[in-house]
Every structure is written in C-alpha cells, then in structure tokens.
C-alpha cells in the first residue's frame, strides 16, 4: 500500500511530501529512499515498493520542494535531464540532509523497532554519505554518489555502517575521485566499498537505458543483505 505523507521540517513550520510504501505486515524497521536528480519519480517509487515487498516501511522525501514541489523527470529525455541538472545546481544539500533527518525521525515512530536506514542514488548517493555522517541513520547505502571525495573530512563522524557502490567508468566520478574515496575510506571500520568494473553511472536504476541487469541485481543483493544484518 502506498500514499503520500506530509513531513514537518526539523525547525518547522514548513512541511514537505514523502512517498511512503507500507508492507503487508507491521514493519519492524524503515528505509528512507533518497532521490536522484530526477525527483521522486516512477523509478524511485518502485525502489520504495520493492523495499515494502521485503517487509520494510519505505519513504522517499521530496527534496526539491524548496525549489519546486512534485518534480518527476525522465533521465532518458534530454530536456528533462537538463532540467534535473538545473535543479541539482539550485539544491541546498545541507537543508536536504536536514529534511532526510526529519524523515528518519518520523519513520522511527512508525516501526516496531524504531530502526531506520537510508539508501540513495546519484545525488542521493552523495546525500547518503552526508546522512551517514550527519544523522543517526542505523545503516546507510549510497549508489554512485558524486563528489564524495569533497566530503572525506566528515568521515570520522560516521558511527553506523555505510556501504557505497562505485561503478569504475562513472562519467560523473573520475578515476582520481574513486582513488581518493578508497584511500580515505578503505580502512574505516564502518564503511564498505564495492567497485563495479566497466559500469557507468545509474546502472541500478529501475527503468530506462542506464540499467545493467546483472550488476544491478548484484548490488541490490549486497544492499539487501546489509540491511537485513543491520536493521532486522
């Protein structure tokens, strides 16, 4: 069952929408799904629905609401891709992480255990790293996060498990950035990095031409096992 929920910002009184997918049974824990630059579109909602099928309460907050509410863009349509880049450039990422934190707090009240994790893609992969460093998320996963090398100074604040999926031919994350991520995080006791040789950005998208089925299934299997270990 899915619906749209209204979340209050940490400092109020503003509110923003979050897509929520509920499992058939009472959820033991929840996972926040952090959007790509394309908004809470069909692909992100499908990520939530899949997590609900696995028994989690899944929520995806609209992080573009301060710029434009209800954004849904298709990465395979060039004008919409360009619009997504514009929105990303305007996004206050610090405020977005606070909105993720507000969603985490709300989700804790809706589960038996109170445990809440997060998973993000693209822009959401970067925000997932920031979430791991700045919030109390119990377990966090980032897919093809951009610019994480710029955030390595925050690594000592990561207190709960974090997993990052890194395609080695990511058009938005060059080899030097990947090297810096490994050098900065390989020895971190809470962080696990997985490389995906020869793959590009967006390989685990639910829909569209960017998806690589075999790699997506492998990464999602690792993510599922990670969440089972830390959230259930």
Description of the structure:
The structure is a single chain. With 232 residues, the chain is α/β, with parallel strands linked by helices. Helix 3 (93-108) packs across helix 4. The two termini are 21 Å apart. 36% of the residues lie in helices and 21% in strands. Helix 5 (175-185) links the parallel strand 7 and strand 8.
- In DSSP terms, counting alpha (H) and pi (I) runs of 4 or more, how many helices? 6
The percent range for helix content is 25-40%
Going by helix content, strand content and strand pairing, the class is: alpha/beta
Oligomer: single chain
Strand order of the largest sheet: 1-2-4-3-5-6-7-8
Uncertain regions spanning at least 5 consecutive residues: none
Strand content: 15-25%
CA(first)-CA(last) distance = 21 Å
Order of helices and strands: EEEHEHHEHEEHEH
* Tertiary shape: globular
User: How many β strands by DSSP?
Assistant: 8
Q: Estimate the mean pLDDT confidence.
A: 97
Question: What is the gist of this entry?
Answer:
The chain has about 230 residues and is of the alpha/beta class. The chain has six helices and eight strands.
List the helices and strands and how they pair.
Blueprint: E1 2-8, E2 15-21, E3 29-34, H1 42-53, E4 57-61, H2 78-90, H3 93-108, E5 115-121, H4 123-134, E6 140-143, E7 162-167, H5 175-185, E8 191-196, H6 213-231
Parallel strand pairs: 3-4, 3-5, 5-6, 6-7, 7-8
Antiparallel strand pairs: 1-2, 2-4
Helix pairs in contact: 3-4
């Amino acid at each position: 069952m899915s619906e749209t929920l209204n979340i209050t910002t940490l400092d109020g009184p503003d509110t923003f929408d979050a897509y929520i997918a509920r499992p058939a049974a009472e959820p033991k824990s929840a996972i926040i799904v952090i959007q790509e630059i394309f908004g809470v579109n069909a692909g992100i909602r499908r990520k939530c629905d899949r997590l609900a099928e696995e028994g989690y309460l899944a929520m995806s907050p609209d992080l573009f609401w301060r710029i434009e509410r209800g954004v849904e863009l298709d990465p395979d349509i060039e004008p919409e891709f360009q619009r997504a880049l514009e929105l990303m450039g305007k996004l206050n990422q610090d405020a977005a992480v606070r909105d993720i934190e507000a969603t985490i707090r709300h989700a804790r009240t809706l589960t038996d255990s109170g445990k809440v994790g997060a998973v993000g893609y693209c822009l959401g992969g970067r925000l997932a790293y920031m979430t791991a460093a700045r919030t109390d998320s119990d377990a966090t996963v980032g897919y093809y996060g951009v610019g994480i090398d710029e955030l390595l100074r925050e690594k000592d604040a990561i207190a709960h498990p974090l997993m990052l999926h890194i395609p080695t031919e990511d058009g938005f994350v060059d080899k030097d950035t990947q090297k810096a991520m490994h050098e900065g995080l390989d020895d971190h006791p809470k962080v696990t990095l997985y490389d995906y040789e020869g793959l590009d950005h967006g390989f685990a998208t639910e829909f569209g031409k960017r998806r690589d089925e075999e790699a997506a299934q492998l990464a999602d299997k690792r993510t599922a096992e990670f969440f089972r270990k830390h959230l259930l």
